[in-house]
Every structure is written in structure tokens, then in C-alpha cells.
Amino acid sequence: MRQLDKFRVTVPLRVRYAETDPMGVVYHANYLSWFHEARDQLLINLGVDIKTAGHTGYIMPVVEVSCRYHYPAHYRDEILVSAVPEETQVARFIVHYTVHLKRHSRLLAEGTTVNVLTTPEGKLLLRLPEHFQVLGKRLGAESHR
Amino acid sequence: MRQLDKFRVTVPLRVRYAETDPMGVVYHANYLSWFHEARDQLLINLGVDIKTAGHTGYIMPVVEVSCRYHYPAHYRDEILVSAVPEETQVARFIVHYTVHLKRHSRLLAEGTTVNVLTTPEGKLLLRLPEHFQVLGKRLGAESHR
Amino acid sequence: MRQLDKFRVTVPLRVRYAETDPMGVVYHANYLSWFHEARDQLLINLGVDIKTAGHTGYIMPVVEVSCRYHYPAHYRDEILVSAVPEETQVARFIVHYTVHLKRHSRLLAEGTTVNVLTTPEGKLLLRLPEHFQVLGKRLGAESHR
Amino acid sequence: MRQLDKFRVTVPLRVRYAETDPMGVVYHANYLSWFHEARDQLLINLGVDIKTAGHTGYIMPVVEVSCRYHYPAHYRDEILVSAVPEETQVARFIVHYTVHLKRHSRLLAEGTTVNVLTTPEGKLLLRLPEHFQVLGKRLGAESHR
Fold first, then answer.
1. DSSP E strands: which ranges in C20-136?
2. What residues of C are in the D interface, CB distance below 8 Å?
């Protein structure tokens, strides 16, 4: 479904030494933790209190991730991680990411994650619990009733 | 293209504390480093000397990764990471992974990576350099000429 | 106080790619997570059920760590991490570590950690709660009364 | 020897989700990578070109680290990592760190690292090579001749 660009957030990060690998570039798995920072900022902006979300008893695991890498990031590079949510009718939270080098705006990588909501035992929730209903309101589930 | 199951390798790992997150389960980005361990074992089995590969001046970056997560892994779980290469005609190395819990053989995750070969400056190689030609021989590029 | 060598445990590990840094050697912070694996194996051997320890409401944070690095570890090296507890009269758990290369038994690093027990709010416990009393019994607090 | 407070640097960081552990706090090993960020900023301020240091053929490994943890850091906390070098007459680079919570200035941890200079083969250098002589000049080795 379509991306809701009005909710785009961009998080600035600086590459840390511990994120680089023997090739001298950022190890590819670390982009997923960068996506995480942008996704949580997006959740906050959308009105989800992520600090207290754990107290609801529900969890929001990543169930799918994909990433394409275009150009490597190096130690101390300043980067910009953007996240845009996808419109959704169901209890899935789909986010698209781009990672740019701040200098020159070079595109380094782009990716997607899908999160769902489950009980602590891992049972999938098909309807958004109260704490997360703001997501449904803003990402389109409500607007199409 | 088809998966070459005869080259399947399986690497056993035990989940480390440092790999788990505040939900008490393995942080999703860590599966990518598990894939890496299985992929390098696969390269070794296929005849690529990964210890000296760096001396060739060529590098083999991951350019695409995807993963679907079915069930969480927990601290100290014994897991099995399997890797199977895909047949290929070009200088791309495509590998498919499954992650199972050793106990019960439960499927935890499955994923795919694509690696290419580049010069240190990032210029894509369209033909396999000598050090890596064994890959072409075994994964089909040569056999279909 | 003296080290209780009879409780020594040794955990074998293999260096993963994601643990190495741009110098091509294991990033020094990763030795602390190796210590963790050996320490938890030690706790298990001493009779502490670490799987259910979290349910007691008490936590056992590391409050001090030190490490001296003698020789670097490389990707795919097989290493042995040994942990030996120190005799103790108080609610502190002091462990000494050595890290050896399996091949040649070369000493790579040695270190020490100190853990205490606290409430979830971080209040220090001066007496061991029931779940952890086995530590006091085995590490000397009881035997010197 | 005495700390050279005039060279103190402070690096701001925000705690990332991937740095936290099942206790919901920053995993203790991650403080070492925070120290690294402050140490490299200190080297830059002292005049060492760390981008080209690798080209000299010399490396600067951490040979000792210690850390005491006073209070845990949590996800999204804004923290300040300060580094102060110690005066030195020899080819050792000793740095002391403090980690504070930005809000309330609460002290979270303090630590020390020792780095040396070696050839790529690990042979210890007793005199600073040219690229690093600025360290000797500024940290006292020259001024006491």
C-alpha cells in the first residue's frame, strides 16, 4: 500500500568504530539497528508511548526485514536514517527506510521492516490493543471505515 | 534459480547473552551475523580460501539481505543455521538460510543474502577473479556454457 | 581472597566475523561478552538456576570489570574461556578469567568481574536471597562462620 | 601520573535499543565502545589524524581496560562520555573516562584504558613513530626532557 510520507522522520547518527568490520566499513547487520532507532522515533511521533508499551503485556516483534546496500558507510560518517510508514488496514506496522550520507546526500541503503503485535506468548493480535490504537487511526485503518 | 541442496552446510551455534534484547529474545539483527557464519563455512566447503581472499584485493560485500522471523530464540538455546547456495550464471553469490532450534527442530527464521564481488573502490566485477572461480565452477556458471 | 580453582569452568567459543574490527582482530569489548558466557556456566555449575533467577525479582549486575589483552584473536580462531570464582564472605560474586587460543594454548587475555545482587530498583542486597544462597555455601561465606 | 584536564573532551551519545539487554539496561560491554568514541575524539583534538593512522603501518591496540558501573543507563537516555588523557613519558596512551546521564548529571560509570603502539605483527614500539609524536609533545614525554 502507499507510503504515508507526511509521517516521515529522519534520525541523524554518526558511525561508531564498533560498528565497522575488517573491510573498514559498517557491518551490514548494523543497519537494522539504525532502522530500529528511526522506527521508534516514528512510533513516538505517531503517539505511541514506547516507554510504557512494555507494561501493556503486548510486544511488537519484527517479523520481516529486508535491506539493499548501495554504498558503504565508514567510521565517523554522519548519516541520516529516514523512516516512512505504510498505510495499513490490519495490525501490521510496515516501515520503509532510506539511509543517506549527510555529506553529498548519497544513498547508502534502503530497507523495509514489518512488525506485528503479539501477546508475550507470541500469539498474534489481529486487532490493535488500546495502547496502540493511535497507529490504526493514523495509518489508515480507521479512515477507511 | 534453483537451490543446490548438495552444498548445504549446517553450523551449530549457542545463543549468547549479549545477543538478547529487552524482550528476552535474540535481537533480530543478530540473525544476519549467524547467516554470515554459515555463508563463510559454505564458501570454505566450496573451495574458497576466505583467509587469503582479502589479499586478492577484491571484496565480497553483502548487497541484499532479507529475513522472516517465525519464532524467537532465547538465551542459551542451541540453534542450527543452514545455508544453501543458489545456482548462478553471474558474479553473484546467492545463499538461502534456515535457522532451527536444535531441540524439536522448530523453524525460527529463514532468509536470503546476495553478495557480489567488487574492487576495493567498490567497482562491481562482472567476471569472477581467479581466487573465486571455483564458485563459478561449482554453482553452475561454467557448467552451462 | 583466594581463587577456588575446583570450580573452574572452561567454555569453548569460535570467533565470529561480526566480532572482528577494522584491524582484523576481535574488538576488545567482545571479550566481556565471552566472560559472560563463562560466568553463567559457572553459576549453573554452582547450582544457580539462571533461567528462573529473573523471576526472583533480584538482579545481578556487573559493577566492575577489568581486562588485560596480551595477544589478538582472529576470525574463526577457536578459543577457550575459563572462569574461576573467588572465595567471598559477602554478597559479591568475583570471577577471574583467562582466554586462550585452543591451538598452542596461547594466552590472549585475562580479566576479572565483580557482580552484586540488587533489587530491581538497584538497592544493594547485603545478604544473599534464597535463590542465590547456594553461592554463599559454595564460595565460603557459610563455611567460615 | 596526573590527568591533563585541559585536554578533556566530552562526546554526547544517545542509548540505542540494540545496546540494551534483557534487564532493560545498557549491556555493560557497550560502555567500552562509548569510551572508544571519546578516545578517538581526544586523539583528533590532540592532533592525531586517525583517518590516516592506519596507513602508517602501526596500530594502537587497547591493552588494558577497566570500568566501574554505578548506575544503569536506559534506552534513549542522553549520555555524556568524557575522556581525559594522563601525562606520560613513554609510548603508552592512558585515558580516564566518566559517563554521565545528561539529565541530572548522574555519574553512571567511570573507567580507564591503556593503548600502546605496535607494528602490524604486534611488536611493541618503545618510541612514538612520526605520525604519533604529537601525542608525546602534548602529553608530556617531550616537556620533561
1. 62-69, 78-85, 92-101, 107-116
2. 22-23, 25, 27-30, 32-33, 36, 54, 59, 61-72, 122
Question: Rounded CA gap, D120 and C103, in Å?
Answer: 21
pLDDT above 80: residue A141: no
Mean pLDDT of chain A: 92
Considering CB atoms only, which of D18, D22, D29 is closest to B24?
Answer: D22
Which value does ipTM take for this structure?
Answer: 0.93
Residues D100 and D112: beta-carbon distance below 8 Å: no
Backbone torsion region of residue A57, taken as left when φ is above 0, otherwise alpha when ψ lies between -120 and 50, otherwise beta: left
- Could you report the per-residue pLDDT of C9-44, keeping only the tens digit for each? 999 999 999 999 998 899 999 999 999 999 999 999
A27 with C21: Cβ contact below 8 A: no
Nearest to B81 by CA among C16, C116, D69, C82: C16
Longest dimension (CA), chain B: 52
Q: Summarize the confidence of residues A85-108 as an average pLDDT.
A: 94
> Any idea what DSSP says for residue B125?
P
Q: Is A49 a catalytic residue?
A: no
Q: Which of C117, C143, C139, C120 is nearest to C130 (CA)?
A: C117
What would the grid cell of residue A81 be? 536514517
The predicted model scores a pTM of 0.94
Domains of chain C: 5-139 (3.10.129.10)
- Residue position matching grid coordinates 578533556: D8
